[in-house]
Amino acid sequence: MKSLPFPSPSRDLAGDSAQSLLLAARLHAPGSYLGIHSVPGGELVRVFQPYMSRVWLQTSSGFQVMECTHDAGIFEWKGEAVTRPYLLRLEHAETGVIEERYDPYAFPVQISGHDLYLFNEGRLLQAYHMLGTHQVKNQGVTGTRFAVWAPNAERVSVVGDFNHWDGRVCPMMARDHSGVWELFIPDLPGGTLYKYEIRNHSTGEILLKTDPYATRYELRPNNAALTPVESRYEWQDNDWMVQRAGWDWLHAPVNIYELHVGSWKRHPDGSFYSYQELADHLIPYLQEMGYSHVELLPISEHPLDESWGYQVTGYFAATSRYGNPEAFMYFVDKCHQAGIGVILDWVPAHFPQDSFSLARFDGTALYEHEDPRLGYHQDWGTYIFNYGRSEVKSFLLSSAHYWLSVFHIDGLRVDAVASMLYLDYSRKEGEWLPNRFGGRENLDAIDFLRELNTMVHGEFSGALTFAEESTSWPAVSRPTYLGGLGFSMKWNMGWMNDTLNYMQLDPIHRHYHHNELTFNQLYAYTENFILPLSHDEVVHGKKSLLDKMSGDVWQMFANLRLLFTYQMTCPGKKINFMGNEFAQGREWRVNHELDWYLLERDPHRGIQMLLRNLNHLYLDTPALHELDFFTEGFSWIDCHDSEQSVISYQRRARDGSFMLVILNFTPVPRTGYRVGVPESRTYQEVFNSDSTYYGGSNIGNPGDIVPTGQQWSGQVDSIIITLPPLAGIILI
C-alpha cells in the first residue's frame, strides 16, 4: 500500500480544536479525531500513544511507520484504503519492548439503540448484559467492551495499568443522548484492573470511579473493578431448579438459617473461609440441623467489613473476600444439590458515600436525589436511590435479575423496606418533602417495589421475596394486581418485638403482659409472615438471645428452649440467626467467628439438640407448616390463662391432622393441669423442651394421656397433664 503525503492536522477532519481537547483530556467524541477517516486522496489513520516511541500500521504492504505529528504522542498515516480493523505495532518508549495490538478506534460501537431506549425508559431488566464489561468479538477480534452511564460527563475514559491510568488514552464514545458511553478495547485479558475517569461537563471536576455494573472487584481496601473472565462453570442443579419451579411454597416448610459468611467460622489464623470451604462445612451442618434455606447477609461487594455488607458498592459482584464468582456459583450449586435453598440479603434502599462508587457518580446526583431531604439517609449516613429515575430503576431491577439468573439464587430478602416507603422515615417536620399529593408515601419507591416483585415472580418461578418492613403498611405480601406490594412474605417484626419483650420479663410479672403472647393472632393472617430472630437482635448492646432471657442460668436456658418451642410452633415461616441455635453467649461480633467452643458445655449442646429436633419436627409435620398463612391452621385452646402464664393452641394440616401445643411461661411445674382437646382419644407427648436431653428437669407426660370425658375451653373433651417449668410440650 502506497503512503501519501500528510495533510496538515489543522486542515483534516477534526483539526486543531479536537487535538487540543484530546491532549487536555476533554475530547467528548474521540471517534471524530482518532481512528480512520476519509480524506482527499485516501484515508487517514490517527492514534494517540503517549507512551510509545514509534508506531507502525499494518497495511497490505506490511507494517509501515506512522509519522509522529505531535510530540505528546499523536501518530498519523495517510494512504490508500486501510483494512478494517487494523493492527498497530508499538515500541514502548521506556523499555523498547515491541508489541502488536489493534486500535480501539478501529471498531464500531455495538450496543443497540433499542437497548439504550429500554434502559432510558427503565425497562431494561437485564442491563448487566449491556453496561459494565463483557468479553465479546467485534469484527472477528476478541476484546472487552466497556459501557457506563454518565449523562453529565464531558468525557469518560477507561483507565488501568494497561494505559498508565491516563485518562487521555482511552476516551469512550458517547452514545447519542442516552448518557451511555462505550468503548471496545481489543486483546485486553480477563482480570485486568480498570476504573472510569470522568470529567464533569459543568465544573470540570475529575472523578475516578469504579464500574457500577462490574461483576468482579479487587480485594478490599482496593476498589478497582476487574475485566471479566469467561465463566466455565457447569451447573449441576437442574433437578432443584425444576422442583423449585413447581414448588407450593405457601404450604411448604420454610426454615431459614441467617448467616454472615465472614464470621460463621474462620481458620485458626483468623482468615476467612472461602466459598468452597463454606460449602464443604456449612451444608452438612444445615442438613443435620434441619434448615430448608440459608440466608446470606449481603455478599454484594462492599468496602468495610463492619458494615456487614449493607453498604454496597458492587451491586453485581459477589465479594472477593471469599473467592471469585465461579466459587460462589459452586456454593449455591452444592446447596441446591443438597436440597438447601439460598437467599440473599439485597439492599436497594440506600448506598454509601464512598467517593469511588455510586455517590455523585458523574459529578452530579445521578443515582441519588440532589435534595438531601429526599436523597440522604440521616440514620446511616448514606444516599437514598432516586427510584423515579428510569435508569436507576433499570440498574436496581437488573441487579435483582442478575443474582437470580446468573447465580440461581432462590430469593431476595429486601432490606429496610420501611425506609423506602415513607418520605418522612426517621425525619422531623421540615426535614422531608411530601409527594405530589401532599402525602408521606414514597410513590416512586412503591412503584419500584411492585415492579421488582412482578419481575421476580414472573421470570423466576418459585423464587421468593421477603420484606423487612417494620410498620403497619398494608398488603406488603399481597399480589400487585390486588393493590399489594407483591412480596412473598413479610418479616413479622411485631411478633419478634412482643415476644422478646415478654421473654425478658421476670416470670412473676408475665401475667400482666399476657397480651404480648396473644395479640399477634389478631393480625397474623393479614400478611404472609415469617417469624424472625435475626442478627439485628443480637448486636449493638441488645445482648444475645440467651442473655436477654430472665432468671438464673438454669432459667435463662429454659426460657431460651421455651422461646424456640414457641417460635417453631407458631404460625409463620421461620428464620434464626447463626449462633442462636447453640445459645451464643456474647453478642455477634463481625470480626470473630462464633463461639463454637461453647458446644463443649452441656447446656449449649442441649439448646442445639433441641432446635435440631424442633427443626426436623417442623419440616416433617404438615400441621406445623402447611397452613402457616391461613386461619384454618391455628386455633386457640386457651389464651386466657394469664394468671398462670400458660397458653395452649392447636396447629392443623390440610388433611385435618393436628398437634396440640401447651406452653408454660413460669418456673412453676403444674400438675393436674386440664387442657381442652378437639377429639376424644388418647394423646402422646412427642416433644418436651424440659427433657434432660436438652438440659431440662425431665418433668413431663410419659405414656398415653387419656381423655376425661369432660368438655373444657369450648372443646369436646379434655385431658389432665403435667406442665414442666419454663417449657413447652407438643402432643399428638
Overview of the structural elements:
With 732 residues, this protein is α+β, with helices and mostly antiparallel strands. Among the domains are: 35-102, Immunoglobulins (Immunoglobulin-like, Sandwich), CATH 2.60.40.10; 113-227, Immunoglobulins (Immunoglobulin-like); 629-731, Golgi alpha-mannosidase II (Immunoglobulin-like), CATH 2.60.40.1180. It has 15 helices and 35 strands. The strands form nine sheets. Strands 17-18-21-24-25-26-27-28 form an eight-stranded parallel β-barrel, surrounded by four helices. The protein has a five-stranded antiparallel beta sheet with strand order 29-30-31-35-33. It has a four-stranded antiparallel beta sheet with strand order 1-2-6-5, with no helix packed on it. Strand 30 and strand 31 (658-664) form a beta hairpin. The longest helix is centred in the last third of the chain and has 19 residues, at 602-620. The model is unreliable at 1-15 (pLDDT under 50).
